[in-house]
Amino acid sequence: IGSGGRDVFVAAAGGAGVRLLVETLESSEDDAQSCACCVALLNACHQHLPSREALLDCGGVQALVTALASENIEVKTAAAGALLNCAATAGCAEAIREAAVDSRGGSASGFELLARCFHAAHPPLLRARAAGALFNCAAFGPDTRVGLLEAGVVKAVAGALVAAFATEETTPTPPSRAANHAKHPSAAAVAAAEETTLRIQANLIGCALNLALNPTCKAELLRNGAMPPLVVALRSSNEAVQAQASTAIAYLSDKAEPRPG
Question: Is a pLDDT exceeding 90 seen at residue 17?
Answer without folding.
Answer: no
